């Protein structure tokens, strides 16, 4: 993670993301801009974040590590959204790892300095409540989709969400656990995609050769999501 000292870019991202409108207190003076490389951690497991991040570009994933060392994929973040807001509200919360799927840009406020101000900022807390309610609704929809649609549709959406530069390289065990299917069933559908020429196996993962096929399958499951951010 590196800080970007470019005031023009920072101001553009502030305007484009609606960042300033999330607060009623003056936060611009202390707002920093960070760039996070793909695969790099934004928040480290068990380590209280020093910053409240506002993801303005990119996608990230949330992991949990159990007592036996097993790592499980929990959720995904897409811009714009806060990262570290739970640790801001609950200082005793055990942080979970947040990793960039692709290059991410984050606006950031120093956590310790702004915690008292933000916890008394009605505008910020209202936006936070809305964001958390939407996240809860998204999880409910995801659970419903897991019960209602075949794996081929769900895996298509998962591949689109986790790919970077048209390369899919998620661990099969974590993907199967996240979607609630057997390892064998997951491999069967991936083999189906490779036979159709949708995916091409390589050493570092799978090259996506037919993104339109994946998009059509994903939209069958989620017609209200046009996946436009994945078409770039």
UniProtKB/TrEMBL annotation:
Endpoints of the signal sequence: none
Coiled coil ranges: none
Superkingdom per UniProt: Bacteria
Matches recorded under SMART domains: cNMP (SM00100)
InterPro entries: cNMP-bd_dom, cNMP-bd_dom_sf, RmlC-like_jellyroll, WH_DNA-bd_sf
Domain Cyclic nucleotide-binding: 25-135
Transmembrane domains' residue ranges: none
NCBIfam families (UniProt xref): PRK10402.1
Protein name listed in UniProt: Transcriptional regulator YeiL
Source organism (scientific name): Leclercia pneumoniae
